[in-house]
Design goal:
Layout: H1 22-28, H2 37-46, E1 53-57, E2 60-70, E3 80-87, E4 90-97, H3 98-105, H4 121-129, H5 131-141, E5 145-152, E6 159-166, E7 169-176, H6 187-197, E8 211-224, H7 225-229, E9 236-237, E10 248-253, E11 256-263, E12 266-269, E13 274-275, H8 297-301, E14 304-317, H9 318-323, E15 329-331, E16 340-344, E17 347-357, E18 360-365
Antiparallel strand pairs: 1-2, 2-6, 3-4, 3-5, 4-7, 6-7, 8-10, 8-14, 9-18, 10-11, 11-12, 11-13, 12-15, 14-16, 16-17, 17-18
Helix pairs in contact: 2-6
Length: about 375
């Protein structure tokens, strides 16, 4: 029994659509926010780590420092006030802690409080308290600044967070970005960016508790991809450099290294960690784009791969790495001649055992290397 095919579909079979590739997924992805290059460049100039902007108000020092850029508004831990400033023809909203506003007003009127003032008197008194700082900002930005309004914090949107210290008062201020973000940067914000960019960069110290991994290298070998492709379980690799044959292991942490003497299941440092030279890097290639050709199979097999043979890895803090030196002891926690990890350009591709080959030491593979099973 046969059935007629619908008109227009005779001789056709249903075909499943081709699965979407990762490239197709990326091509269809639309981020929630799109930023123009001019805005990103402006933000990068002012949002970096820089020293504080300092001034004296009354008999107390005031310090302002850029903290971070916040895209999704977060609830404030303290009561805040929105201070709307006229800067040239633009308006800027700067939210400050209520306690800071109270402290500033007290420099103008002893025992004064925000509750005593209503607008526009509140704005006038607060602007008067900030006069020394405003005079400096006007000179450096070539913009006239005027406090237009002070009220309850209600502004929403992305902002730059500032760390503020005024005498004993500490808090966070919020400088709200202009809207829309995909438009031109207002002159007031350009002037602010130029002012903040003049502040010297601040180099913050890394935390001494930052975790670091120290690796113990017993030897190294450079071999072509074609040679490694031919290896199998039971084959032996003869390292070009084998400090373990002389009773030492090289300890590395990134580009830092030091030698350590093997003493049973312990390693005793011969000196502090120090930097090692970087491998040769090409700044540019002189081959013209039109001359480039895809690599042949022979080219790929001639690629040199750096193998490192490791006897273990140990976690250590950055602070400890700075302080250790000659005589420091690393506990191996295992026999020093136990299984060895084989790493290619930092990635483990196999394991082996230390064996003697004539007068030298080598590594016998326990199995095939990764990708060569």
């Amino acid at each position: 029994m046969t059935t007629a095919s619908p008109v227009g579909l005779q001789g056709c079979c249903p075909v499943d659509p081709a699965p979407a590739s990762r490239a197709d997924e990326y091509a269809k992805y639309e981020p929630s926010q799109s930023l123009p290059h001019t805005l990103v460049s402006w933000l990068n100039r002012i949002a970096g780590l820089r020293t504080s902007l300092r001034s004296n108000l009354g008999d107390k020092p005031l310090s302002l420092r850029v903290g971070r850029l916040v895209w999704q508004q977060e609830p404030s831990a303290t009561s805040m006030l929105d201070c709307v400033w006229g800067v040239g023809d633009d308006a800027i909203v700067w939210s400050i802690p209520y306690a800071l506003a109270e402290a500033l007003i007290s420099t103008v009127q002893s025992g004064g409080s925000l509750a005593q003032f209503s607008e526009p008197s509140r704005s006038l008194v607060l602007e008067l308290a900030l006069e020394p700082l405003l005079a400096r900002l006007e000179t450096e930005t070539q913009q006239k600044l005027q406090l237009l309004h002070v009220g309850k914090a209600e502004t929403k949107g992305p902002y730059i967070e500032f760390d503020i210290v005024y005498g004993p008062v500490k808090g966070k201020g919020r400088l709200f970005l202009f809207s829309p973000l995909d438009g031109p940067i207002p002159p007031a914000f350009r002037a602010l960016g130029e002012l903040l960019a003049k502040l010297p960069p601040e180099m913050r110290k890394l935390s001494t508790e930052l975790p670091i991994i120290v690796a113990g290298e017993i030897g190294a070998l450079r071999a072509s991809a074609s040679l490694l492709r031919k290896t199998s379980a039971g084959d032996a690799l003869l390292p070009e450099v084998m400090p373990f044959a002389h009773g030492q292991i090289i300890l590395t942490a990134g580009r830092l290294w030091t030698a350590a003497d093997v003493a049973g299941n312990r390693l005793i440092l011969c000196g502090p960690f120090h930097s090692r030279p970087r491998p040769l890097e090409y700044a540019h290639m002189t081959t013209q784009p039109g001359q480039l050709q895809p690599p042949s199979e022979a080219d790929l097999e001639d690629i040199e791969i750096s193998l490192v043979f490791e006897c273990g890895r140990w976690p250590i803090t950055l602070g400890a790495l700075r302080s250790i030196g000659e005589g420091h002891v690393f506990e191996l926690g295992r026999p020093v001649d136990g299984p060895v990890d084989i790493l290619a350009n930092g990635v483990r591709i196999g394991r082996g055992d230390i064996v003697r080959i004539g007068e030298e030491l080598g590594i016998r593979l326990r199995g095939g290397l990764a990708g060569n099973d």
